[in-house]
Write a structure and sequence with these properties.
It is built from 15 helices and four strands. It is an all-alpha fold and about 350 residues long.
Length: about 350
């Protein structure tokens, strides 16, 4: 981690853990908790896109599956042993067998991570083994998002259809409307973000990270050097999917609704925009980009309800002007500053004499 990234991470950590809980209202803190869940999702995409060169436009599927797994537990707890309301409205008379294990929170949390990982394992094995990459892989993951949206909308008796799963009341027996519970969910999400960040930082700084970057820059060279890119790409894709599922599980109790819209094509593209705005291949840039874009979306929609989309469009266009994102802009400014300092030192008579 560079000195600049350490400073940015330190400032961000102090803001999230100290300033935000003290200054924000319950509503704003809950909103920030959602943004932090998005930040975990952005790191997950940055791990495979920024470091490995695999652009997934279907990461919303993994996020949505994690959210649904957690939402099933929350809905069963809210039903208190009765059949969930949307199932009764759809004509079901008993709880489906695959819903029953989700009454246990440990199982739901485990499945929120495991189900996306298994799906990524199957999809990744079939695609990477056949050397499907680049835009073809992106289109395939985009089609996956469309398939899952249609599937979950069509299975209304089991998934809630278009409306999804709603009306969550408690988590682990505590009311979701209590300020202390909202604070706890926020802190758990913040700590999870920190753990995910350091995990991915450790992975990318290790030998694995160097191989991933080599695959991104020249997969054929890596293959000719004796490495099997399929194994590395499959591993990082599965890890990324699990992190996306974890983000969905943290998101569900804070937003209060889980619907197929989370898995759509547009949300998946937005994730890529968060990473691009912050700067892909930096991890900390993914965190900054996700918080900045979602914060701007919330603030601008409140302040300028009629024209806020234009402001957001300007922000997205700026990604083209600065292709390396915010972190790339910081790096460029830092380089220019160092050049100015060196030039000043050479032109300064006193400094020049001391230097000589």
């Amino acid at each position: 981690m560079s000195t600049r990234e350490k400073w940015l991470f330190g400032i961000l950590a102090i803001t999230l853990f100290v300033v935000a809980p003290l200054l924000f209202s319950d509503f704003r803190l809950n909103l920030m908790g959602k943004f932090l869940a998005f930040a975990i999702l952005a790191i997950a995409l940055d791990l495979i896109w920024g470091y490995t060169g695999i652009l997934s436009l279907g990461h919303g599927v993994f996020f949505g599956l994690g959210a649904y797994a957690m939402g099933m537990y929350l809905k069963l707890e809210a039903a208190k042993g009765h059949l969930p309301d949307f199932m009764s409205w759809s004509g079901l008379t008993e709880l489906p067998w695959f819903w029953k294990p989700f009454q246990y929170p440990g199982f739901a949390i485990l499945m929120a991570v495991a189900i996306p990982m298994v799906l990524a394992l199957v999809l990744g094995y079939l695609t990477f083994r056949n050397r499907i990459h680049g835009v073809y892989f992106s289109v395939m993951t985009q089609a996956l998002a469309l398939i899952f949206v249609i599937l979950f909308v069509g299975q209304q008796p089991y998934t809630g259809g278009t409306n999804g799963i709603t009306d969550f009341k408690t988590i682990f027996g505590f009311s979701l409307t209590e300020p202390a519970v909202k604070m706890s969910l926020y802190l758990v999400t913040a700590f999870s973000l920190a753990l995910v960040y350091f995990l991915c930082r450790w992975l990318t700084n290790a030998r694995l990270g160097r191989v991933l970057v080599a695959i991104r820059d020249g997969e054929n060279r890596v293959r000719f050097s004796g490495y099997n890119p399929v194994v590395y790409k499959l591993f990082v894709f599965v890890i990324s999917a699990g992190l996306a599922g974890l983000a969905g599980a943290l998101f569900a109790p804070q937003v209060g609704i889980v619907s197929p819209a989370l898995m759509g094509i547009v949300p998946s593209i937005e994730i890529a925009i968060w990473v691009a705005v912050g700067g892909r291949g930096t991890l900390i840039g993914a965190v900054i980009g996700s918080i900045l874009v979602n914060g701007a979306k919330s603030l601008l929609s409140e302040t300028f309800p009629d024209v806020w989309l234009y402001f957001l469009g300007i922000l997205f266009v700026s990604v083209v002007l600065f292709p390396n994102g915010i972190m790339g802009l910081f790096a460029k400014l830092s380089t220019l500053q160092r050049k100015e300092v060196k030039a000043y030192g050479r032109n300064n008579p006193v400094f020049g004499k001391c230097h000589r």
